[in-house]
Automatic annotation (TrEMBL):
Its cofactor is pyridoxal 5'-phosphate. Belongs to the group II decarboxylase family. This is Pyridoxal-dependent decarboxylase. PANTHER family: GROUP II PYRIDOXAL-5-PHOSPHATE DECARBOXYLASE, MIP05841P. Pfam families: Pyridoxal_deC. Transmembrane segments: none annotated. Keywords: Decarboxylase, Lyase, Pyridoxal phosphate.
């Protein structure tokens, strides 16, 4: 064994203790560090010939890289839809690496069963029925990709072709109907050989991002044969929801596969006051749910649910003499694009085991309350206006005067030490959005964000108006 490796092996306990101390220090400072630091990435160094061992690598990482990393695990990183990691989820993630399982077949230990049981917990948490089976993937993009791969196979079934054998070309033209599809949907369609061009935008309700069911019905009636509908449960701009029951009701008259992108919106089910937004989610044929957002587990974690594991295994079957068959209850290796992968369910298992339904409901409801509070603050702030009501956890707003992308980027940039928000365009208007999904975010963060916005908003800086919120 190389001496440096042997050295680290012999001192592993104390080395890990130093990593633990380092981690505790980072976590202690997380709430106060610059949300998006301005330190540039370090220059590339040479590949070491003889490395310094774990302690030296930790020192180099802390000195060279950490100052330039964002506080995305912290309470005021409100860009995209970004969760943190609950204490139990973090521990689960550490132990995932520690155990280093590749539990995707029944030939291995119990890891695969841990994943199945965790999927069962999530199904219960989100109000999905037993008809949905699921598997872990690395994120909602992959979850959408798998859901649409099953949809593609279902289209083949309707037309009497096996797409997994014959290829996507055997399907002929495909139509995927959606009002506010997330950018990952066209990406998934490109990956699947269906092409971005098969996405047909459907009109939204006036002033909304939610699909107009009447417009969707017109598209379905005009379609020549079965198609795919992507329903959106929680849009990234404004947290808007399609009426899932109205969409599902169209199945009585038209043949389509219903895929629901509920990446973060699915968590509305945890709150009694918001559960109606996801009523009907269970009727979808496939459902995408992200876990590294509102469940607050570390990247990379999401689940894809489907009612047709048989079609799923037709696509992702990995036939090898040394593996189990894909028939019956297929092993995980036959259900997703991955073959080998980490015991991805463990972080989710830990946080659900540690905090249960109530703990996670509290996170979701707190985030929604904070979003409402920031929405009210923005609404009352000179120089800013809300572009949509705060329906869930996203606050979408813009400048009252001259809201150009440049001026909004400058506003976001002026706030970046204190809060990180991402730009968007909503109904043709350049805007910023702040999404609350981190378990650490607290009441006191809203006035801090408001103060940063006020100081950076052109109209807010006018004498005599600066004191208003
Ligand atoms: C975040 C998100 C995605 C993509 O998720 P990744 O985890 O980044 O792959 C897809 N759909 C919606 C609605 C999302 O919010």
């Amino acid at each position: 064994m190389h001496p440096q490796l042997a050295h680290d092996r012999d001192r592993l306990g104390s080395l890990l203790e130093s990593v633990r101390l380092h981690a505790a220090r980072i976590l202690d400072e997380l709430d106060e560090r610059a949300v998006l630091p301005s330190a540039p990435p370090p220059e590339a160094g040479p590949l070491p010939d003889r490395g310094p061992g774990l302690a030296g690598a930790l020192e180099a990482f802390a000195e060279r890289w950490e100052p330039a990393l964002s506080a995305s695990a912290g309470p005021r990183y409100l860009g995209f839809v970004t969760g943190g990691a609950t204490p139990a989820a973090l521990a689960g993630d550490w132990l995932t690496a520690l155990w280093d399982q590749n539990s995707v077949t029944s030939l291995d230990g119990a890891g695969q069963e841990l994943e199945r049981q965790t999927v069962g917990w999530l199904r219960e948490l989100l109000g999905l029925g037993q008809g949905h089976s699921g598997a872990f993937v690395s994120g909602a993009t992959l979850s959408n990709t798998v859901g649409l791969a099953v949809a593609r196979e279902w289209l083949g079934e309707q037309k009497g072709v096996e797409v997994a054998e014959a290829g996507a070309a055997a399907l002929g033209p495909v139509r995927v109907l959606s009002a506010g599809a997330h950018s990952s949907i066209p990406k998934a369609l490109a990956t699947l050989g269906l092409g971005r061009g098969c996405l047909v935008p459907v009109a939204a309700l006036p002033g909304r991002e939610a699909v107009d069911p009447a417009a969707l019905e017109r598209e379905l009636a005009a379609a020549d044969g079965p198609c795919v509908v992507v329903a959106n449960a929680g849009t990234v701009n404004t947290g808007d929801f399609d009426d899932l029951r109205a969409v599902a009701a169209l199945k009585r008259r038209y043949r389509f596969w219903l895929h629901a992108d509920a990446a973060f919106g699915a968590f509305a089910a945890l709150s009694a006051g918001h559960a109606a937004l996801v009523e009907g989610l269970d009727t979808a044929d496939s459902v995408c749910v992200d876990l590294h957002k509102w469940l607050n587990v570390p990247y990379d974690s999401a689940v894809q649910f489907t009612r047709r594991p048989d079609l799923q295994a037709r696509v992702f079957r990995n036939s090898a003499a040394y593996l189990s068959s894909a028939a019956g209850t297929p092993d995980l290796v036959h259900l997703t694009p991955d073959n080998s992968r980490r015991l991805r369910a463990l972080a989710a298992w830990f946080t659900l085991a540690a905090y249960g339904r109530e703990g996670h409901r509290e996170i979701v409801e707190r985030c929604m309350g904070l979003a409402r509070a920031l929405g009210e603050t923005v609404e009352a702030m000179p120089g800013l206006r809300l572009l949509a009501p705060v329906r869930l956890n996203v606050v979408c707003f813009t400048l009252t005067e001259d809201p150009t992308p440049e001026r909004l980027a400058a506003l976001a940039d002026a706030c970046r030490q204190e809060v990180f928000m991402t730009p968007t365009v909503y109904a043709g208007t350049p805007a910023l959005r702040a999404a609350f999904s981190n378990w650490r975010t607290a009441d006191a963060d809203v006035p801090r964000i408001a103060a940063a916005l006020r100081a950076a908003t052109p109209a807010g800086a006018q004498p005599g108006r600066a004191g208003q919120t």
